[in-house]
Amino acid sequence: METALIRHIRSQANTELIGDDAAIIDNNIITVDMLTEGVDFILAEVDPLWIGRKALAVNLSDIAAMGAVPKWIFMAVALPQNGALELAQQLLAGMQPLIEKHNLLLAGGDTNTWDGGLVVSITLLGTATEHGVFKRSGGKAGDRLFVTGKLGGSILRHQFFFEPRVDEALFLNKHYTVHSAIDISDGLTLDLHRLAAESRLGAVLYESAIPIAEDAFKLSQRSGRLPMEHALSDGEDFELLFSVGPGEAAKLLSLQPLSSFGVTLYEIGELTVESGLRMLGADGVLRPLTPQGFEH
Question: Are the CB atoms for 165 and 240 separated by under 8 Å?
Answer without folding.
Answer: yes
